[in-house]
Amino acid sequence: MIIIMKSLYATLFAVVLRLAVLASAGANPLYSPSWRFRLDLPEGYELSGGDGQNRFSFSSHFGASVDIAVYTGKTSVEALAEELEKKLSSRGERHRYDYNGKAAVLSTVNFPDPQRRSSRLSGWAFYAELEAAGGAERPMLFAVAYGPPDNALQSLHLSVLDSIAVSQEDTLLPGPVTHFSYPPGEWKQYPLAGTGEQAWFREGDIEAAQALVDREFAVLRRYADSPLWQEAWKRFYRAIYRDSFDRLKDAAFILERRWAAEAFGAWVRGESPPNPAGGALGRRSDEARVFAGKALDWIQQFRYERDLMGSDFVNLVSAARDGRGDCDSRAMLWALVLEQGAIPAGIMVSREFGHAMGLADIDGEGARFPFREGNREYRWLVAETTAQAGLGMIGENVSEITKWLGILFL
User: Fold this and answer.
1) Paired sense of beta strands 405-407 and 120-129, if any
2) What radius of gyration do the chain's Cα atoms show?
3) CA distances from residue 37 to 68, 71, 141, 156, 170 in whole angstroms, order as listed
4) What is the C-alpha separation between 205 and 179, in angstroms, rounded?
5) Residue 276 burial (CB count, 10 A)
6) Spatial contact of 234 and 43, defined as CB atoms under 8 Å apart
7) In terms of CB atoms within 10 Å, which of 60, 217, 243, 293 comes out highest?
8) Chain center to CA of 385
């Protein structure tokens, strides 16, 4: 049962906001059709306040809370931040920056607890311009993640705010906290492991990507013994996928171009029949299979590497550039490269087997993993990225499907 409580900011908000749950259960992102922003809360947050239309608050069993609202008629995000933090009697540092072409502010907050005036609450607040809707003045988003002054909650607060996608264009770009903490550097070419090719990356991509992995792993560890662990895993990989997608965009393009040329050259030599009606790579199903197989061959050559003292997940930029990683890093990189090539892909993970493999919507023979996401059922081809196994091959020792969890990223 959802218990409606008085919002901390009930006297502050004058907003128009609607949130729609994208799917019916689990840690599915929340979406505002009115203002077109998204929020991917960690597991265990529930609606705890608001009026059902104009303001929303969420609380978690960790003691952390989130409030969100949209304002119109304000002159700037800086003015909005100053106004709200003054009303809260908040102390903290405020930073103005540009987030993908939109004015934004990120600030620390520390303010009296309205329930116990002798105590204080602390956390982070984020303000950003939203897309104008219906000719209205440019609206502004306010989101604050807060709780008791406990350093252990800081990664949770930052994860909440970093999950915000201010507009549709931001859903596959690093989040606002990561963007602020690791501003995009200059473009520079770096080698792609084992290919002889070079791709464009931004300086600092590796550090930014690994910082996100480490923070999200700290959040994920909270769910080790929780009945919500499966949904927490899904959110962990969603966060990495979002952060990595644009960082690897040029690399995926370079690899697709290379493998397309190799496949077409093989067909010219008569090793596989071309299809004149389907373009250089023949039928779509043939193209997808060849592309996925080439990507799998590349990743299977990586050096197996684990970090038993840390997150045990090599960020995907390092994986692509250095040719290293554990099973889930490899499987996720394989899936991301396929997604960039317009082939629906995901991963499957198993806590019992301590393993991960790739999944893709590809025709042809091979082992398939049946899974359900929301109201849809899938039966996708599997890909073993840590052994020299062909597409669709899976070891008998890890073939029990009930011990696997299918994960999609969007």
Assistant:
1) unpaired
2) 23
3) 11, 14, 9, 20, 9
4) 11
5) 6
6) no
7) 243
8) 21
CATH topology of domain 191-407: C8orf32 fold (3.10.620)
The angle that helices 154-162 and 205-220 make with each other, rounded to 10 degrees, is: 120
Q: Please, which pLDDT band fits residue 263 given cuts at 50, 70 and 90?
A: low
Geometric angle at alpha carbon 65, from 64 and 71, rounded to 5° = 155
Residue 357 backbone phi and psi in degrees, to 5: -140, 165
Tokens matching residue 110: 């520390």
pLDDT tens digits for 45-56?
A: 998 887 666 678
What is the C-alpha to C-alpha distance for residues 224 and 233, in angstroms, rounded to an integer? 10
* Res. 312 pLDDT band, cuts 50 70 90: confident
One-letter identity of residue 166: V
**3-state SS record for the chain:** CCCCECCCCCCCCCCCCCCEECCCCCCCCEECCCCCCEECCCCCCEEEEECCCCCEEEECCCCCEEEEEEECCCCCHHHHHHHHHHHCCCCCCEEEEEECCEEEEEEEEEEECCCCCCCEEEEEEEEEECCCCCCCCCCEEEEEEEECCCHHHHHHHHHHHHCCECCHHHHHCCCHHHHHHCCCCCEEEEECCCCCCEEEEECCHHHHHHHHHHHHHHHHHHHCCCCCHHHHHHHHHHHHHHHHHCCCHHHHHHHHHHHHHHHHHHHHCCCCCCCHHHCCCCCHHHHHHHHHHHHHHHHHCCEECCCCCCCCCCCHHHHHHHCEECHHHHHHHHHHHHHHCCCCEEEEEECCCCEEEEEECCCCCCCEEEEEECCEEEEEEEECCCCCCCCCCCCHHHCCHHHCEEECCC
Q: Give the Cα separation of 13 and 9 in Å (integer).
A: 6
- pTM to 2 decimals? 0.88
Two structure tokens written together for 138: 């440019």
How far from chain centre, in Å, is Cα 201?
Answer: 19
Scanning the structure block, which residue is given the tokens 């204080």? Answer: 120
Q: Residues 296, 298, 302, CA angle at the centre, nearest 5°?
A: 105
CATH of domain 20-181: 3.40.1000.10
Q: Angle between the 229-245 and 327-340 helix axes, to the nearest 10 degrees?
A: 50
Please report, as a single letter, which amino acid is at residue 284: R
Give the closest residue to 46 by CA, choosing from 31, 22, 34, 64.
64
- Phi, psi for 352 (deg, rounded to 5): -65, -45
Output the average pLDDT for the chain: 85
285 in the Ramachandran plot: left (φ > 0), alpha (ψ -120 to 50) or beta? alpha
Task: Enumerate the domain spans of the chain.
Answer: 20-181, 191-407
